[in-house]
Every structure is written in C-alpha cells, then in structure tokens.
C-alpha cells in the first residue's frame, strides 16, 4: 500500500518540530486525508495534541508513541504498521535532536527512521544564520548514510532574500529546500501555552488551525507528499495475551488535571475488563470499580478545584484504605498525598492517603528514562518508563519502597515506587503496552488481599 509517510526531525530541541508536525497533520486532514500521527519517544502531551490535529469525522486516529527504549524494536514496528495501515497518510514527529537517544543514538529519531524506512523532513531554526547552514546540513546528511533526507524546512525566516541564501546552501549540499516558516508572534505566544493549558475552555483546535494556515503559505506540502510517498505493510495485528484474571471494572481518572496516559496502556487494560472514566476535578462520586488508575497530568494547575472537591478526595481515600487496587503515576502520586504546595508556598489539601507532601516551590526539573525492577519474585521482569516533573516530595520516610529504579545508563536515581495497602504509586510513567504481565502482577496483589 502506497501512502505519504515521513518523520519530522531537527538538529536540536525547540526548532519548531511540534508546530510543523501539528500544522502539516491538520493541513493534510483538511484535504480529506485520514492522517495517522506518531511521536518518537515518551512524550504523552504531543500525542494528545496530535490527536486533535488529526481529528477526522470518519476515523479515530490517536497519537501513538514509538519508543525503542521503553519497548522492543519489533513492538515499535508492529505499532507503526498496525496504525499506519488504517490511514491515508502518516506523520511521525521526532524527539529532541535527530540523533539524541538514551545512550548515543539508541532510541533516537534517527534509529526509528532507519527501523521503519521513513524519509526525514528536517526542520532547521534559521534565525541568525544564512549560507552557514550548509555545513550543518552536510553533517546531518552524511553522518549516517542509511538515512533518507527528503528535504529541509527552515523556521524563523522572514524574507525571500533570507530564504534564497538557505536554498543556495541546500543546493550545494544536495538536500531539497521544501519551504520556510516566517516568524509569527501570535503563533509563538499561543504555542508557548498550547501544552500548558488543556482546559476544554482553551481552543487548541483553533490554534492548530491557525498554525496550519500560516505554515501552508510558504511550505510546499504537495512536494513533501510527492517525495515521501512509499510502501506501508498491510495491517499488522498487535497480539495481546489473554488476561489471567477475571474481568474487572477499571476506573481511570481523565480530565484537564490527569491525562498523561499512553494509548497502548489503555489498549492493554481493555483486555482485563471494562474501562470507565471519571474526573477528580468535576465528579462528586467515584464510579464502582475494582481498580483505579490515576495517571499524571497537570494537577498543579488546578489545585484549588481539586482541593475543594472533598467528596471525591474522601471516596478515593476510602477506596485506598479499604484495600482497593490503585495504580498512580506522577500527578496521581501527588494527588494521593496529604498536601500540594504551590510555587507561592500556599498549601492545598489533597486525598491524604499517602503520608507525603509535594511541593512546587523552588521547582527543579527531574527528567529521564527509567528502568524499574520490583522487589518481587513473582515479577522478575524489568519495567521501562519515563520520569518528568518539577515537583519534589517530603515525608516519605515511612512509606514502603517496592522497587529499584535506575536511569537509562544504569545510574542510581532517588526515585521510589511506593506501596501502601494495595496502592502502588510512583513518579515514573510506566509503559506496559508490551510488558503486559505487569498487570497480572497488579491484579494478583488484589486477589491475594481478598483471600
């Protein structure tokens, strides 16, 4: 099956990959194409925005993560071909710089482009540079001869004369210039807040529409699609093993405060029972369930509303106290604690089940891939995940830690996986789209507790 498929990459972060990816996804969607978006790496926010950009009246096309650190290469290939075969076009957004991986280029956008045979559209920030971009392009083109560069889009180019210098550089290097994106203050401001404000009152769709209109004026989408059309395998099935436990009802927190969830995690959860959704922000009653999944998100942006919803806090705390199975990640961990302290030092009471406090004061970024080995002979496998937060914990000394957590290079990290009753909580966002047996382990805890 022939269709346009390409990977958008850049030499560095903050070059404009996300803007270009969202704009091109929307532009192709407006042509009547069902566009399947993918994101290299562990980012859960970009896939959320991609799903909005690709919104189609006739197909459900969620953004899908492709990550060769958190899963095997064979799993990544299966995901890609399974979802791409349902689409008319495919856009893959890279992560960081093209060759940046967990270790050298392992897990990088370049590795995924090679693995999947994808042409690369390179996005280069041309602010403050003209013909000197030539050696940069030459290096990227020749560093790995197996990569296929379809061409280059230049960002922050305000005049045709500036673009002519850049086209001269492309011609001398042998890479096609595919257009440029002029600086646009309105888009830059909106872009800055696009990922931070996912309230239903915030018009993400309108912002993406504006991006698409702006980019299409000076980027040659027809030429991109022509250069990048190639073969996609017919639909590949993803084989999920049958659950070993009786069917359960699994309640998942999902609203503006809690929404960082890998799509494949949900697909696996469906094999274990019925999924129902609830909002810690707006709902006053917790749905009847055998398990709660409270993922990460932006609870720190909604502290007053979360704190005021005492009914939901009390019901979740009671569920935890009575031995209900709960799995909480990052923002979910924060929410289950006693208090979240905002950047100004104000304290906001939360569920109070876990004897810890979270503070956003003196915020410092903690970021990186994680390897998790549980202290359990029942689960010898190593889990993979990702950690990203600005908050820090205190008062955790009395909580049981049930795992060893290390970084991508096996370095020690202070991150813990806490357990109290049948609640397991951590800063790590685990990917279990491939390592399904982790859920068997979780449900085993619940069944053992019921005996």
From TrEMBL:
Q: Which family does it belong to?
A: Belongs to the CobB/CbiA family.
Kindly list the cofactors needed: Mg(2+)
Q: Does the keyword ATP-binding apply?
A: yes
Catalytic activity reads: cob(II)yrinate + 2 L-glutamine + 2 ATP + 2 H2O = cob(II)yrinate a,c diamide + 2 L-glutamate + 2 ADP + 2 phosphate + 2 H(+)
Per the UniProt entry, the Enzyme Commission number(s) are 6.3.5.11
Q: Which GO terms describe its biological process?
A: cobalamin biosynthetic process
Q: Which InterPro entries match?
A: CbiA/CobB_synth, Class_I_gatase-like, CobQ/CobB/MinD/ParA_Nub-bd_dom, GATase_3, P-loop_NTPase
Q: In which pathway does it act?
A: Cofactor biosynthesis; adenosylcobalamin biosynthesis; cob(II)yrinate a,c-diamide from sirohydrochlorin (anaerobic route): step 10/10
Q: Which organism is it from?
A: Chloroherpeton thalassium (strain ATCC 35110 / GB-78)
UniProt entry keywords in alphabetical sequence: ATP-binding, Cobalamin biosynthesis, Glutamine amidotransferase, Ligase, Magnesium, Nucleotide-binding
Q: Catalytic center at which residues?
A: 330
Additional info? The a and c carboxylates of cobyrinate are activated for nucleophilic attack via formation of a phosphorylated intermediate by ATP. CbiA catalyzes first the amidation of the c-carboxylate, and then that of the a-carboxylate.
Query: What is the protein name stated in its UniProt record?
Result: Cobyrinate a,c-diamide synthase
The gene name reads cbiA
**CobB/CobQ-like glutamine amidotransferase domain sequence ranges:** 249-434
């Amino acid at each position: 099956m022939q269709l346009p498929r390409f990977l958008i990459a850049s030499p560095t972060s903050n070059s404009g990959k996300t803007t270009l990816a969202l704009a091109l996804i929307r532009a192709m969607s407006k042509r009547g194409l069902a566009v399947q978006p993918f994101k290299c790496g562990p980012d859960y926010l970009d896939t959320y925005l991609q799903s909005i950009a690709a919104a189609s009246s006739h197909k459900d096309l969620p953004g899908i993560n492709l990550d060769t650190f958190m899963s095997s290469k064979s799993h990544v290939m299966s995901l890609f071909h399974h979802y791409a075969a349902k689409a008319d076009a495919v856009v893959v957004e890279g992560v960081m710089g093209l060759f940046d991986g967990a270790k050298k280029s392992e897990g990088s956008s370049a590795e995924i482009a090679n693995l999947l045979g994808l042409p690369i559209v390179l996005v280069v920030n041309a602010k403050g540079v003209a013909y000197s971009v030539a050696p940069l392009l030459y290096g990227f083109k020749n560093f790995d001869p197996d990569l296929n560069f379809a061409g280059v889009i230049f960002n922050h180019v305000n005049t045709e004369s500036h673009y002519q210098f850049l086209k001269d550089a492309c011609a001398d290097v042998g890479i096609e210039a595919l257009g440029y994106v002029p600086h646009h203050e309105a888009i830059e401001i909106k872009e800055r807040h696009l990922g931070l404000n996912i309230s239903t009152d915030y018009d993400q769709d309108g912002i993406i529409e504006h991006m698409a209109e702006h980019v299409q004026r000076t980027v040659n989408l027809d030429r991109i699609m022509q250069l990048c059309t190639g073969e996609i395998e017919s639909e590949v099935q993803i084989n999920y093993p049958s659950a070993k436990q009786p069917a359960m009802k699994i309640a998942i927190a999902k609203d503006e405060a809690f929404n960082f969830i890998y799509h494949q995690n949900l697909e696996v959860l469906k094999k274990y029972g019925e999924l129902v959704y609830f909002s810690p922000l707006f709902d006053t009653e917790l749905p009847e369930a055998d398990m709660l999944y409270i993922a990460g998100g932006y609870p720190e942006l909604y502290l007053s509303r979360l704190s005021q919803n005492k009914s939901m806090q009390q019901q979740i705390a009671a569920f935890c106290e009575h031995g209900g199975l709960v799995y909480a990640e990052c923002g979910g961990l924060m929410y289950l604690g006693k208090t979240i302290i905002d950047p100004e030092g104000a304290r906001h009471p939360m569920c109070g089940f876990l004897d810890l406090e979270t503070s956003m004061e003196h915020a410092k970024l903690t970021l990186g891939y994680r390897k998790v080995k549980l202290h359990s002979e029942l689960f010898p496998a190593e889990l993979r995940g990702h950690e990203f937060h600005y908050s820090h914990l205190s008062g955790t000394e009395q909580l049981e830690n049930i795992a060893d957590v290390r970084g991508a290079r096996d370095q020690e990290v202070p991150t813990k996986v806490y357990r109290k009753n049948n609640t397991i909580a951590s800063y790590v966002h685990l990917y279990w789209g491939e390592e399904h047996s982790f859920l068997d382990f979780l449900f085993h805890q619940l069944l053992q507790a019921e005996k």
